[in-house]
Structures are given as structure tokens and as C-alpha cells.
Design a protein that fits this description.
Elements: E1 4-7, E2 16-20, H1 29-32, H2 37-42, H3 50-53, E3 63-67, E4 85-86, E5 93-94, H4 110-139, E6 142-150, E7 158-161, H5 170-182, E8 187-189, H6 197-202, E9 208-216, H7 223-226, H8 237-256
Parallel strand pairs: 2-3, 2-6, 4-5, 6-9, 7-8
Antiparallel strand pairs: 1-3, 7-9
Helix pairs in contact: 5-8
Length: about 260
């Protein structure tokens, strides 16, 4: 299994990059054997099936980078700082789910944590950095969309985060907001999800604007499937309905930044 997949545009490239750090579902056998079986069956709080939901992006000129390994191997949207393992919301290697339930029946040793960071985390970010720099050289200015999905008790349909105005201009976030609103989505800005490590880190480059986009599971998956302790099915009517709307949304955004 490749660590990541890069999808290059199938038409003229535009200065937009889409990143999918949490949609991968693969867990290597040596890590899977350490995990609680219930979590292996469901991989809770993964961004299930976003790579299929957004598979039209290259046809709009957008370059896509997606992780193939699950977020429980390493969380690419966390800063690699101590403690490296532990809390779901802050550690590179989470030891609990978002709801505080233990993930492992055998806790990874510190050297195993470091091995994962070296193999998966650093390699991914090195490649994403190279991709962004390549696009900056090509276009001068680049826009990074960090694509996620979420569940839980949050009722909002779409959450946009630019760290309260720090990672992209008002013009960019407003363009994205309007595109979603035009397709009848309810949108909030910098509420709950203000932007993770990827959004914050890559916007440090003055030639890069970043925006985290979170869509609620129920907008594209089956509510019935979400009640089961399994990975939801993607081949459901809601998925195709949402995909058509998202294709128009991203096309509207792409048209604004198509040189």
C-alpha cells in the first residue's frame, strides 16, 4: 500500500490543491493486531469515503493529495510535538477515540510511535510541502483546501475554518461559503472547527492561503449506517445526491481562481 496518492489534473491545472489527510482506511497488520477489534471494524471519526466523494476534483484542474493510511496510524493534522501519543485531539498517534475510548489492547511503545512518525507522518508532509512549493513556482499564489468530514453532536452541515481569519483572506472564505450556500447547505465559519495543523502550518508561506472544510457525515452518508458499529457504506443515494452538489460547489470556487 502506497503511503499516499497524488491525483494530477486531467485538464489545465489551476492554483488549487485539495488535501485529504483522514480519508484513508488502511491499517498495516502489525498495527492492526495491537488494536481493539471493535475499532478496527468501524475506524470511528475517520473521514469515510471522501476520496470517492471528491474524485471529480482533477477534472476541474485541482491537484489532489490523499492519505491511504488511517488516522489511527498517524494523524497528519496534528503537530508532531510531545506528547506524541495520547489525546485524540492533540497527539500525532491517538490512544483513544474522540469519545475517550481506548483504541489499543496493546499500547504502542515509544520507539514504535517514533517509527510511525518517521515512516508515515514526515514522509507525507515532505511530499505535501514539495507539492505546494511546486505549485507556488508555477502560479505564484496557491490555495489549499483541507477536506474533512465529521459526526457527533454538531448539527451544522458545513464548517469552514481559517483560524479566525489568519490562514486565508475574507475573500477566499466568503467565496467558498457562498458556493455552499448556493447549493442550500447551512454553513458556519470558525465554529468548532477553526483549522487544524495543516491549515495553520502551510499558511505560514505568504504565497499560500489555506482553508479547512468540514462536512457533516449525514450530508453524504446513510443515517441508518451511521448508527452501526461498522464503516458506513458509500454506495447510497445520499452519496450521489451530495456528490452532484459538491461538484457544482467546487466548480464555482475553481472558476474564481482559474487563471
Amino acid at each position: 500500500m502506497e503511503l499516499f496518492t497524488i491525483h494530477t489534473p486531467t485538464v489545465k491545472a489551476i492554483p488549487l490543491i485539495a488535501n485529504l489527510p483522514h480519508s484513508g482506511l488502511y491499517i498495516p497488520p502489525d498495527i492492526a493486531v495491537m488494536m481493539a477489534p471493535a475499532h478496527l471494524q468501524s475506524l470511528p471519526n475517520s473521514d469515510w469515503h471522501l476520496e470517492k466523494l471528491y474524485d471529480f476534483l482533477p477534472s476541474l484542474g485541482i491537484t489532489v493529495m490523499q492519505a491511504n493510511y488511517n488516522r489511527y496510524v498517524v494523524d497528519l493534522n496534528r503537530q508532531a510535538k510531545e506528547p506524541l501519543s495520547g489525546n485524540f485531539w492533540s497527539a500525532v498517534v491517538p490512544l483513544q477515540t474522540a469519545f475517550g475510548k481506548p483504541i489499543y489492547q496493546t499500547t504502542p511503545a515509544p520507539y514504535q510511535i517514533q517509527e510511525r512518525i518517521n515512516k508515515y507522518y514526515i514522509t507525507y508532509h515532505n511530499q505535501l510541502s514539495q507539492l505546494i512549493e511546486q505549485k507556488v513556482r508555477e502560479f505564484g499564489k496557491v490555495y489549499l483546501l483541507d477536506l474533512h468530514s465529521f459526526g457527533g453532536l454538531i448539527d451544522d452541515e458545513v464548517c469552514l475554518g481559517n483560524v479566525n481569519g489568519k490562514t486565508c483572506t475574507e475573500n477566499f472564505i466568503n467565496t467558498v461559503e457562498l458556493a455552499f450556500i448556493n447549493q442550500k447547505y447551512q454553513v458556519v465559519k470558525n465554529k468548532t472547527f477553526t483549522g487544524g495543523y495543516i491549515t495553520r502550518h502551510y499558511s505560514e508561506n505568504k504565497n499560500v492561503e489555506t482553508l479547512q472544510i468540514e462536512i457533516r457525515y449525514q450530508t453524504y452518508l446513510s443515517e441508518q449506517d451511521l448508527d452501526k458499529p461498522l464503516i458506513p457504506q458509500w454506495d447510497v443515494p445520499n452519496f450521489y445526491f451530495s456528490k452532484v452538489k459538491l461538484q457544482q460547489i467546487i466548480a464555482d470556487i475553481a472558476n474564481k481562481y482559474n487563471e
